[in-house]
Amino acid sequence: MSVYAIFAFLSAWLVILSYQLYSIKRHYRSLIERTKKQKIDDILDLLISEQTRLKDESERIKKELEQIIDKSRFFFQKVGIVRFNPFGRAGTDQSFVLALLDKEDNGIIANFIYTHDGLRIYTKRIKSGKGEEYQLTDEEMEAVKLSK
Questions:
Q1: Is 54 helix (H, G, I), strand (E, B) or coil?
Q2: Would you say 87 and 93 are in contact if contact means Cβ atoms under 8 Å apart?
Q3: How far is 13 from 32, CA to CA, in rounded Å?
Q4: DSSP symbols for 96-142
């Protein structure tokens, strides 16, 4: 009787293993059919080479992005504008000051003063939020503060 039990167990075990082998073989065939009859080794090699290419490209893009971010410190990132009347009661608020600053508060101030004769434009360099060569007027200081 124990021989029959062992035989039944081994038969069941053989059926289970056969089913698993059939499932694996069916899965392998479906992979091969979807990849135009290439060998699985070729598919794996292709995937590994593609992964390596993508990793290299990702590193290149990362370096380029770091360079762009480093350069962006010098781009105008802050803008402040203030309208004012340079002539007191005699005029209107058609004149304005434009502050264009980078990340470190360096840049330029442009003064656009409107008169009856025309438009006058004056510029000043800004270093660390202060006038580099000339002192800033109240309107120019306000434009710098608004740009932050």
A1: helix
A2: no
A3: 29
A4: EEEEEE-TTS-EEEEEEEEETTEEEEEEEEEETTEESSSPPPHHHHH
Run of H or E residues at 24: helix 2-34
- Segment 27-84, tens digit of pLDDT: 888 877 777 766 777 778 888 999 999 999 999 999 999 999 888 888 888 999 999 8
Length of the chain: 148
Strand pairing report for 107-115 and 118-127? antiparallel
**Domain extent listing, the chain:** 30-73, 75-146
Nearest by Cα to 111 from 103, 148, 119: 119
**CA 119 – CA 111 distance, rounded (Å):** 10
pTM: 0.57
